[in-house]
Amino acid sequence: QVQLVESGGGLVQAGGSLRVSCAGSGRTSSNYPTGWFRQAPGKEREFVAAISQSGARTGYADSVKGRFTISRDNVKKMHYLQMNSLKPEDTAVYYCAARAGTYSILNAYYTKNYEYDSWGQGTQVTVSS
């Protein structure tokens, strides 16, 4: 496992943009698949976006496709989620996840909660209408 710390959440108006970041530590290499999930009040945690360990492949939930972009910088051990054209329904706590302690297929990304073994504490994103 690795330690993950999210940052960059906040309050933004509908139509605006925000970038949340995730810093990883605890391993020399950051070459492991990562993902972003979110949880709104009263709802289950849901998949948002995922990226393979090299960054070659990405996947998105239908609700954010075309608006959100996931990326990574393995040298800096940082992972990012750029969110554009935000909507009130994007309001949630956003969590960074890593699959650092489990074998991963090269260039695979993962979309299920249970496929990840490390989680950050979350960062709140609020979109006002």
Structural class: mainly beta
Counting DSSP E segments of at least 2 residues, the number of strands comes to 11
- The ordered string of helix (H) and strand (E) elements is EEEEEEEEEEE
Low-confidence stretches: none
Question: First CA to last CA: what distance?
Answer: 38 Å
Binned, the helix content reads: under 10%
Please indicate the percent range of residues in DSSP E strands (runs of 2 or more): over 45%
Q: What is the average per-residue confidence, as pLDDT, rounded to a whole number?
A: 94
Form type? globular
Instruction: Tell me the Rg in angstroms.
Output: 14 Å
For the largest beta-sheet, the strand count, sense and barrel status come to: 7 strands, mixed
Kindly summarize this structure in a few lines:
The protein is 0% helix and 46% strand. With 129 residues, it is mainly β.
Account of the 3D structure:
With 129 residues, this protein is an all-beta fold. 0% of the residues lie in helices and 46% in strands. It contains no helices and eleven strands.
